C-alpha cells in the first residue's frame, strides 16, 4: 500500500512484529465511483425538489404542501419510486405543522388517523434522539428556535460510543450545542424566510 500512488498514507503504527495500523486515504482523483451511484435517481429527486410547493428537500426526501386536486409525485415500492412516509400514521393522515432549522434538521406534527391524535417526528443530524435527548430536542424546541430565535440548546449524552486514535472503543459523556444552522442560505431579519447567499432582496 505504501508504494501505491492511488493511496495517501497518513500514519503507520506498529502493533507487534506481525501487525501494523496504517491510516490512509485515497485522493479525489483516485476514487472510483460506486456501482450503486445512480445519477438518474439523483436527478429525479432534485427535479421533484423544484416543486413550487416544496417546504424542505434533501438528497433523498421532499416535503411539500398539497391541496385537494393538486398534482402529487407518484409513489411506489421500487427503486426510483417515491415513498409516502406519512402512510404509517394511517390513510388520510396529514402533516399539520412543519418546521426546519436547516439541512437534516426538521420536525413535523402529524394528525394520525390511526391513533386519532397528533404525533410528532423530529430528525436532527448528529444528535441521537433517545428518550432523554428527545425531552430537550423536539418539535417545540425547534419551533421556538426558528420562530422566537431562542437561545441555543445544549444536549448531554451520558454514554456516547466512540473510538480514539488507537481504535479503542470507548463510552464517554458528550455535550453538543443544538441550534438553527443554515449552511447554504441566509435568514432574512425579523422573518422565517431564507434566501441563497449572494441573492439580493
TrEMBL record:
Q: Which domain of life is it from?
A: Eukaryota
Q: Name one GO biological process term.
A: DNA biosynthetic process
> What is the name of the protein in this document?
Uncharacterized protein
